[in-house]
Design goal:
With 207 residues, the protein is an alpha+beta fold. The chain has 4 helices and 7 strands, in the order E-E-H-H-E-E-E-H-E-H-E. 20% of the residues lie in helices and 29% in strands. A 7-stranded mixed beta sheet has the order 2-3-4-5-6-1-7, sandwiched between helices.
């Protein structure tokens, strides 16, 4: 679901952020063939990648909210339980959950609802597990599962709210940027959708 944005009425380009708004640059990437590199070795430890088939809404909200809060993920927080259930229980949507010693550590969501391309819709780790070299392996597994499921092309996007290593990681896996879009969006912290302590690396516009 694309965020709302404002246009400068004179130039037709996104206007600068006003109080309660943020400017973000979104990078869209694609992969048109399976990875040429070998599968990444599994990190040490007791790891399991298990599909939630389907996830309950409460469990999905836990994953989405916990993984996404540091990066201002907010679109699905705004959905009703009915709307979210429709999205995550669709059989064409695959939510693969990473467990470390039995504890949820992150997830990758593969969305096959569009015929033209399979979307790596969401990918990330719960903050406690960042920095343990789990992210590249989880993404690599998600990419290979998407291709094994019959994808003809993969797409993904990232933005300037995300971890600074997100874009280089996608590119290292074989994704190629094909467009950049600048938008001005409502700050979910200003709306109360996210706590004001979320994403301290993204300053709030409060003047």
């Amino acid at each position: 679901m694309a965020p709302k944005f404002s246009l400068n009425r004179w130039t037709g380009v996104p206007a600068g952020p006003r109080p309660g708004e943020l400017q973000v640059i979104i990078t869209y990437l694609e992969m048109t063939a399976p990875p040429a590199h070998a599968s990444l070795p599994q990190p040490s430890g007791e790891l399991a990648l298990v599909r939630a088939a389907p996830p309950t809404v409460s469990f999905y909200r836990y994953l989405y909210d916990t993984v996404g809060e540091p990066w201002l993920w907010h679109e699905r927080r705004r959905l009703s339980d009915t709307e979210l259930t429709e999205a995550v229980t669709d059989p064409r949507v695959e939510v693969q959950v990473l467990y470390v010693s039995g504890t949820p550590a992150g997830y990758v969501e593969i969305d096959r609802r569009e015929a033209q391309a399979t979307d790596i819709a969401y990918f990330g780790l719960i903050p406690d597990f960042i920095g343990l070299k789990l992210g590249p392996w989880l993404l690599d597994r998600g990419i290979r599962m998407a291709w094994e499921g019959g994808a003809s092309k993969l797409v993904v996007n990232t933005c300037t709210f995300d971890h600074p290593k997100a874009l280089p990681l996608y590119q290292s896996m074989g994704f190629v940027p094909n467009r950049h879009v600048t938008r001005v969006v409502r700050d979910p912290r200003a709306d109360g959708v996210l706590p004001r302590t979320a994403a301290p690396h993204v300053p709030m516009v409060i003047r």
